[in-house]
């Protein structure tokens, strides 16, 4: 009898959980589009992926609520598309979706995007946005028309931009941003309002606006702050180079690297340096890694003890010529001047061992053992090195 009670409890629990679990239907997109036309409603599409945690959270917390589904079905024809399946891939490409989850509100008569949202939100916020999407004067085509009627009008520009960025990534905002900024003279660019536009919408490192920022940093710092100007410069270099590093696109990386280097500021040189090393590691281009570190380590990361040790570890594993190894030893020894550490001393000992300087290797190995023993840490690695050194 007890078994049946447990079984009944388990099945009841499963039933409750299944009731609270939203399962998207698989209505074909064209069918949903035709249904929307017949019903005279906009088409609502959620783009998702099974591996996306924010998508799954929206299914669990928002779309499992009958009130949300009732609202959507009353006002929209709905479709749910996985971006890893044929229709989802096509819609993702058609509407330039880069972030998940994505929510598209579409005019079924011409498939114009009326409104778009991205990311996770609470129920109330989602319902509010879905209501805004029903208002013609809050939809993207109307706001775009208002903006283009007078591109110099900052009010209509910001209204359009703020609605656009609810569903688009920052790089997708560049066209309206440049249309607006083209109505501004160089001197007009230096204002608190136009700084906000540049900071949030300019992503092209070669653009007139960004080049003007570079040559008039003090002027922009006066209306924003030097820290904000610095962050913008660093951000635009990151946005330029990161995609090529992430995709291991060495050809285009080296081309754009020269553009970033042309800025000729230490803060941007430091960003390029770190991207260089990341790409060299991921593509195992150790000659390039060595060249870049020999040229720039002391200029760009000389006071970063952790980074100096990271470079030393790469030299220990992948660089073989004695001259370069001696240089890496000097870098790691400088890291010990900044922060004496167990791992730093052990690394110097291993580097000396690699160039067959037993005396120096023993000294730093003993220093590492002393630090480890004092801190109560395991000294197995250094004990193994000492044993190896004492055999020689």
TrEMBL record:
It comes from the Bacteria. The keyword Oxidoreductase does not apply. It holds the Pfam family Thioredoxin_2. Residues 13-135 form the Thioredoxin domain. InterPro entries: AGR/TXD, Thioredoxin-like_fold, Thioredoxin-like_sf, Thioredoxin_CS, Thioredoxin_domain. The keyword Ribosomal protein does not apply. Keywords: Redox-active center, Signal. This is Thioredoxin-related protein-like protein. It comes from Flavobacterium aquidurense.
């Amino acid at each position: 009898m007890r078994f049946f009670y447990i079984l009944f409890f388990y099945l009841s629990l499963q039933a409750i959980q299944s009731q609270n679990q939203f399962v998207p239907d698989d209505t074909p997109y064209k069918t949903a589009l035709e249904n929307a036309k017949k019903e005279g409603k906009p088409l609502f599409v959620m783009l998702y992926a099974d591996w996306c945690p924010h998508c799954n959270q929206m299914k669990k917390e928002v779309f499992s609520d009958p009130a949300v589904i009732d609202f959507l079905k009353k006002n929209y024809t709905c479709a749910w598309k996985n971006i890893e399946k044929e229709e989802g891939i096509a819609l993702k490409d058609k509407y330039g979706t880069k972030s998940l989850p994505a929510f598209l509100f579409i005019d079924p008569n011409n498939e114009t995007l009326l409104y778009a949202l991205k990311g996770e939100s609470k129920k109330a916020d989602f319902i509010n946005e879905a209501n805004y999407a029903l208002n013609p004067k809050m939809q993207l085509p109307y706001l775009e028309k208002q903006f283009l009627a007078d591109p110099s009008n900052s009010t209509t520009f910001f209204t359009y931009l703020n609605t656009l960025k609810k569903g688009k990534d920052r790089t997708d905002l560049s066209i309206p941003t440049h249309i607006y900024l083209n109505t501004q003279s160089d001197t007009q660019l230096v204002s608190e309002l136009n700084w906000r536009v540049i900071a949030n919408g300019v992503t092209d490192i070669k653009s007139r606006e960004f080049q003007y920022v570079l040559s008039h940093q003090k002027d922009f710092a006066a209306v924003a702050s030097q820290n904000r100007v610095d962050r913008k410069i660093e951000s635009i270099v990151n946005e330029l180079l990161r995609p090529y590093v992430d995709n291991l696109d060495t050809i285009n990386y080296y081309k754009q690297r020269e553009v970033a280097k042309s800025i000729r500021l230490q803060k941007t040189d430091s960003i390029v340096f770190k991207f260089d090393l990341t790409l060299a590691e991921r593509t195992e281009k150790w000659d390039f890694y060595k060249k870049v570190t020999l040229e720039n380590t002391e200029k760009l990361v000389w006071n970063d003890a952790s980074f100096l040790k990271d470079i030393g570890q790469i030299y220990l594993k992948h660089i073989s010529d004695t001259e370069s190894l001696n240089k890496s030893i000097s870098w790691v020894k400088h890291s010990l001047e900044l922060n004496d550490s167990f791992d730093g001393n052990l690394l110097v000992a291993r580097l000396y061992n690699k160039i067959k300087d037993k005396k120096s290797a023993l000294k730093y190995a003993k220093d590492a053992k002393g630090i480890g023993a004092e801190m109560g840490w395991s000294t197995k690695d250094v004990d193994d090195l000492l044993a190896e050194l004492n055999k020689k």
